[in-house]
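Incident log, structure service

09:12 report received: a user says their structure output differs between two submissions of the same chain.
09:20 pulled the input from the user's history:
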Amino acid sequence: MNYTVTINGKEYILPTRTIAVDDKMSRLAALGRRCKTGEITRREVMEGQHRFVEEMAPGAFPDLETADVNMILKACMDIVNVYAAPSLEMLQGVLNNPDMKKAVELANLNQ
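09:34 re-ran on a clean worker, output below:
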């Protein structure tokens, strides 16, 4: 499967979604929680987000000191959304299946 994301008007081909990529996304998600508990600083969150984007889309941003931190956050969300899209499409396909809709209707009648 091919994954592409547009960052700052440029298209980047993302790596294949592997367990290692999922691990990176999990570490990214943990940054906010760790900051809320005071374990890490906001700067460390931004460093982690910048590192994540650099690993997934090398060269998308200059160094952290000159990059727009809101654009880095947006790039992180865009990358995660690109990886999540196929799963969401499959789930939507299952939920929109007429047989599934009938099963849900029957389950609701039995309640």
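09:41 both user submissions now match this output. Likely a transient worker issue. Closing.
09:42 reviewer note: Strands lie at 4-7, 10-13. The chain has a mean pLDDT of 88.
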